[in-house]
Every structure is written in structure tokens, then in C-alpha cells.
Amino acid sequence: MDLAAAARRSEAFTVVDFEALPEILRALGGYVDDKEGNLIRISHAELMQPPDTIRVEYEGRDGRIYLEDLPRSTIADNAMRMYKIRMQNRPNPAWHH
After folding, report:
1. Residue-level pLDDT, tens digit, the chain, 97 residues
2. I want to staple 18 with a disulfide (CB 3.0 to 4.6 A). Which of 24, 27, 77, 79 is the partner?
């Protein structure tokens, strides 16, 4: 399955919406991984202050629980950064001849 998925990704150019739910979740997971934490909860409420933020709750390496309210723009920027890294690290299909 991994090889089939990689082949599909390398077949054609696709437009990525960095503010779509899958990319947001991937970026938040990467954010928590960068902090060497374990994700507990992700939440978003229309009444959160500041508006247009997503709350991430995770357990740090030190065992403490952290709550962070991240702006969606920061999450989208992180998603774009992660995408660029994935594209740089993907195998070049021309190398497989």
C-alpha cells in the first residue's frame, strides 16, 4: 500500500489546500512531534479567544500537560513547510529505471 500511495503522489501535480482538515491535523501532529510530546486533544471552538485558533493539548517529555492556542495561519505555514520537506525527500521516479 505504501508503494502504491507513493506512486499516486508522484504521478501528477496536485493542488494542496494547507488549510484543509487533513493538512491541519498533519501539521499539528508534526508540531507536537517537534516538541517530543504525546498528543492528548485538539479542539476548536468558534468562541475561542483569540478567534481562528486551534487548541492543542499534549504531554511533554517532562510529563507536564501543555495547552497551546495556535493561529490557523501558523498551522497552515507549518503544513506548507512539512509539505516542502516531503517533496524534497520523495524519491525521483526517474531514478527507478
Report:
1. 566 666 655 555 567 777 788 888 999 999 999 999 999 999 986 676 777 889 999 999 999 999 999 998 889 888 888 888 888 887 765 555 5
2. 79
Q: d(Cα 95, Cα 26) in Å, to the nearest integer?
A: 28
- Neighbouring CB atoms inside 10 A of 26's CB total 18
Q: Check if the beta carbon of residue 37 is closer than 8 Å to that of residue 28.
A: no
> Which domains occur in the chain, in start order?
17-84 (3.10.450)
Alpha-carbon distance of 24 to 9, in angstroms, equals 19
Residue 55 has, within 13 A of its CA and on its CB side, a CA count of: 15
pTM, whole model, 2 decimals? 0.69
